[in-house]
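User: My advisor asked me to double-check a structure prediction for histidine kinase before group meeting. I don't want to rely on an old file, so could you generate it fresh from this sequence?
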Amino acid sequence: MNGIRVLDVGAGVAADLGERIDGRPVDTVAVSTLSAAVDRIDADVDCVVTAHDLPDGDGVAVLRAVRERLPALPVVIVAESGSEAAASDAIAAGVTDYVPRSADVDLGARVAAAVRDATDVPSAARLDALRDAFPDLGFVVDADGRILEALAGPQSATHLPDAPAALSGRCVDGVFPATLAAATRGVLETGTERTVEYDLAAPSGTEWFEARVAPADGNLAVIVSRRITDRKREHRDLRRQQSHLSQAQKVARIGSWYRNFSSMELWWSEMVYDIFGRSRDAGPPTHETFLSAVHPDDREDVTDRWQAALDGEPYDVEHRILVDGETRWVRERADFSFGDEGDPVEAIGVVHDITDRKEYERRLETTNERLDVLHRVARHDIRNRMNVVLGCAAELRRALDPDRIPLRMVDRIETAAEELLGIGRQLRDADGVVANDPDRRPVDVAALVDELVAEFAADAPDVAWYTAVPDSLTARATPTLVVALANVIENAVDHNEGPRQRVAVVTERDAEQVEIRVVDDGPGIPVVERELLVGDRERTQTVHSSGLGLWLTRWIVGNAGGSFDIHEGRNGGTVVVVDLPRAVVGSQRHG
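Assistant: Sure, here is a fresh prediction for histidine kinase from the sequence you gave:
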């Protein structure tokens, strides 16, 4: 029984083949290079098994050399990993079998099948093997554009408009889109490989493919099509996301950038170009490009901050830039990544155009300065002028004879002057509330309410007081809470009426809030004023509140993180509700 001689070109398949194939002894001749393989190709060789990657070439070159000398000699190419391009080249050159090396492949059996079915026309068994090894769609097309063979695995066959066997004999342009048909004609005419994309209506739905069309011996063309539907969808989704990101950056006036320090690559998003007033046509941006746009007075500081960021410090800087002679403001932030040696590798950052914010801050600062001056002048002048008015009223009272001239006009003058002095004090309190930052701390609301009720009760003996306050009730508030609660209680006392004047102060607590309710029997706050105070109506020149007391209360409660509300009582009168965040301090005993 004659043995089988296998030329092993860098594949190392002796262990896979064993000592016998179909009962015949196996003699493996091993070489490692393309040149050595070419020297050993002769009629004594029954099969060539070659690695795809060789030191001086590849397995396809070995295959072509074999086909020139011995067209019927079986050639098996063993690839370490599957490759569409390599498989397509191998098929075009007339490979017997193309086998990706893996634990699931019986290489010895595949070589045995190649020897057994050796012929110059690919057999059905070898086509099946190729189909299994290369699961994409494969077609062999003749010079007239007819499909001679259609190769498709079970999964890829679902992407065809018909069964693979039913496609044989049909023209490419009758099955596939014009783009693929035109590419196939071009390859047959010129012998030059082409790659095209096309979409196809298949039972699985509309599918996208990338086809590589290559010339083959005998004036044939080989088409290898890979499904890329998922990739196209991913690209579509990515383009949509990029469009949304670009639109968001445009709305927010925020751009993004990327810096690679090894390649010195600097990438800007469209919005960065827009913010800096630079065109892409001016060439790729550089760090020097960026620095040239920085305002000269800010350039040294920006450079220092950048150098500090290269050493690991946070990069967050606001500075001016010059755009077509106009000064604008930007805020830049970036995250840096560093290598094992501490050298910067890359940076990703954002640029935010804050020109409008800076302009608003400038106008606000100017407005606050003006208001502060007007406020201090108004308070000073009111106090001085009203003291003069009160002094004159006192002199007038002493000069007039009450038995002959009624003094009610003097009383009205003194009352109005005292009220204006009170407004001055309220302005001072308001200035303290608005100007100072909230300093929140635990405040014993129960003790504060008890003290205020006792103080007002002493000054208003005709008012009946009703309180429901625990021994201790701690809220988180600012020290000016005493001013807010005093205003509410004073308002309840001043606006009571009738023979029975009553004021009730009730406090409650739940897991998160402390609630203070002040109820009176007065006529109630007018609807318009109540809506203004709780924010349900816009302030205008003709619609405004008549005093500062409850406004102060609203601001103080807001600074404490609480809420303020006013509504009508069930039996008339007014109910003012102040809610404050609870502060848990030790244990609290309820009464």
